[in-house]
Amino acid sequence: MGAFSRSPWILHYDASSCNGCDIEVLASLTPIYDVERFGVVNTGNPKHADIFLVTGSVNAQNLKVLRTLYEQMPEPRVVVAVGICATSGCVFRECYNVMGGVDTVLPVDVYVPGCAARPESIMDGILQAVGLLEKKREYMKSMHGRMREMTIERALPADAPEILALQKIVYQNEAELYDDWSLAPLKQTLEEMKADFQNRIFIKAVVGGKVIGSIRGYMVQETGHITRLIVHPYFWRQGVGMKLVQAMEGWLPEARRYETFMGHKSTHTMEPYQKLGYARVREEKVSEQRDRVYFARERQAT
Ligand code: SF4
C-alpha cells in the first residue's frame, strides 16, 4: 500500500457487543499486533475520526448513538463492521430487541467476519478502510474540479436521507458557532423531513451524483419564505448558495417578496442573500446564545 496522505484516526464504538470483539480490537492496538505502526490512532472524539469501527448489533437503544457519532465525523469517513454481530446481527438477529447489523442504519464500507473477529482480520479491515478513505478523499478533491457539472433541480422525498445527512453536517458547524446543540435541524428525523416534502419545495445541488447543497421554500400569502440553505463545507465560497437561492426564487413565481432568516453569527449563510440584494429587516432573540436575523427583498418587476 502506498504512503497515506495523513494518519487515519479510528473511533471504536461498542454497539451491543458481548465484548469479545472489543477485546480483539484492543489486542490489535497492543504491541503484539500494533496497528498503530500504520499511523492509526485510536481517538474518543468523533470529530477527529476518519474510520468508524463498530462491534455488536443495532438495537433501538444504540441506533441514535450510532447515527449521531457517524454524523459528527467529518467527511470523508469509512465505516467498518467488526464481527458477525456488526455484520448481520449474528444469532441474535431474530431477537425482539435486535434490528440487525450496522448496515441497518449506516452505510458500511468494510465487513470483518469472525466471532470473535481475530486481530489479524481487524487489522486487515482497518487497512482496507485506509485504502477506501484515500479513494474517498481523492473523489472529494476531484469534485472541486467538477463544479461546472453542478446541476440544480427539485429534490424528491427519496433524496431526504442524503439531504438530512448533509443538514446534520452543516448544522454541527452552526452548533459550535453558538455553543448550542439543541438546534432543531440537528434533531430533525427522517420522518419529519419526509413530512416537510408535503408542504415545502426542496431543491438540491448535485455534483457527481452527490447532493452538495439544498434549500427549501414555501408561500405564505404574497411572501416566498426561503429556509435551510445548506452547502457542504467542502463547497463553501464557490457560489453554490447564491445559485440555490436564485433557483428557489424561480420555484416561487407568485411571490411579491422573499424572506429568510438565520442566526446572527451565521455570516456564511447571510453572504449569498446579501449579494442578491436581501436587506436586514428585523431581529428577534430565540435563545441565550442566539438571535434570529430576518432578511427580505422585494421581487423585481420583469
Ligand atoms: S461477533 Fe461474537 S464475539 Fe463479536 S460481539 Fe458478536 S457474539 Fe461477541
Could you characterize the architecture of this molecule?
- By secondary structure, the chain is an alpha/beta fold.
- Helix content is 34%, strand content 26%.
- The chain has nine helices and 14 strands.
- It has helices at 20-29, 63-72, 83-88, 119-144, 160-178, 184-187, 190-196, 240-250, 267-275, and strands spanning 9-14, 41-43, 51-55, 58-59, 78-82, 98-100, 110-112, 151-154, 201-207, 210-220, 223-231, 257-263, 279-285, 291-298.
- It has a seven-stranded mixed beta sheet with strand order 8-9-10-11-12-14-13.
- The protein binds iron/sulfur cluster.
- Residues 17-18, 20-21, 55-56, 83-85, 90, 115-116 line the site of iron/sulfur cluster (SF4).
Query: What are the distinct ligands in this entry?
Result: iron/sulfur cluster
CATH class of the largest domain: Alpha Beta
| CATH fold assignment of the largest domain | Aminopeptidase
Q: Span between N and C termini?
A: 59 Å
Instruction: Figure out the total of helices.
Output: 9
List the domain count as a whole number. 2
**Main structural class:** alpha/beta
Radius of gyration: 22 Å
Mean pLDDT: 90
CATH superfamily annotation of the largest domain:
Gcn5-related N-acetyltransferase (GNAT)
Order of helices and strands: EHEEEHEHEEHEHHHEEEHEHEE
Main-sheet strand order equals 8-9-10-11-12-14-13
* Proportion in β-strands: 25-35%
CATH 2nd-level architecture of the largest domain: 3-Layer(aba) Sandwich
What secondary-structure arrangement, pairings included, does this model have?
Layout: E1 9-14, H1 20-29, E2 41-43, E3 51-55, E4 58-59, H2 63-72, E5 78-82, H3 83-88, E6 98-100, E7 110-112, H4 119-144, E8 151-154, H5 160-178, H6 184-187, H7 190-196, E9 201-207, E10 210-220, E11 223-231, H8 240-250, E12 257-263, H9 267-275, E13 279-285, E14 291-298
Helix pairs in contact: 1-4
The structure holds iron/sulfur cluster.
